[in-house]
Amino acid sequence: MRLLLIEDDDPLASALTEGLREEGFAVDRFATLSAARAAASTTTFDAVVLDRGLPDGDGVALLREWRARCADTPVLLLTARDALDDRLAGLDSGADDYIVKPVALQELVARVRAVVRRARGRPQPVWTHGALTLDPASRQVTWRSQPVELSSREFSLLELLLSHPGQVLSRSRIEESLYDWSSDVGSNTVEVYVHQLRRKIDPGVVKTLRGVGYTIGPVETLS
Question: Domain check: are 112 and 137 in the same one?
Fold first, then answer.
């Protein structure tokens, strides 16, 4: 899952970036509205964590721009402004959640997962697909009731495919979701992770459409 973090407090932003990456997120961090605006115009993010008091303006102004263009990426406002009027203004401007600093990393992670689940129309905390289950919170996977040990990237790929059932995702779309701009992505990286998922779970867990991309295997083959 790829996050856009917009925060100008360097110690806080660095700590959040490190913590979120340890939780399996790909994170791109920027400190200004202009940089975040440019990033969002070229990259698809699964969610945005947005500060309000930024050097070049109020984060709510950027949020309103996005919503005016019908951009539906989940946005969590993370701010020190805790007055009722501030919270109402943020939520009424299109924020999916409003978090007052300081916030524990575990709470931020849970809130990000919650808004992404709602945005994807999958409110249940544990996903089931035939005999395959995936728990995003605990990062645990079971296949036919047996635990499956996956690397962080393998888990993220499986989570991405499960969150888009029936859709074929191109290799570039997968890379965009799994890696931030600081990552070095090999030419066959996605293929390697697909191979590992098939080896560890079942050959039919990922279906390849040559020249198009990948999709999660149909339920009837994973039961």
Answer: no
Give strand ranges (E) for 31-162. 47-50, 53-54, 57-58, 75-79, 97-100, 127-129, 132-135, 140-143, 146-148
pLDDT digits (tens, 9 = 90+) for 65-86: 999 998 899 999 999 999 999 9
* Residues 6 or more apart in contact with residue 109 via CB below 8 angstroms: 19, 20, 23, 25
What residues of the chain score a pLDDT lower than 50? none
DSSP state letter for 117? H
CATH number at residue 65: 3.40.50.2300
Could you say which of 91, 119, 147 is where a domain stops? 119
**pLDDT for res 187:** 64
Number of domains the chain is built from: 2
What's residue 180's pLDDT?
Answer: 87
Query: What pLDDT was estimated at residue 76?
Result: 97
Residues of the domain holding 146: 127-221
Q: Are residues 131 and 205 in the same domain?
A: yes
pTM: 0.87
Question: How far apart, in Å, are the Cα atoms of 49 and each of 33, 155, 161, 183?
Answer: 12, 22, 23, 20
Residue type, 26: A
Which residue, of 94, 119, 144, is where some domain finishes? 119
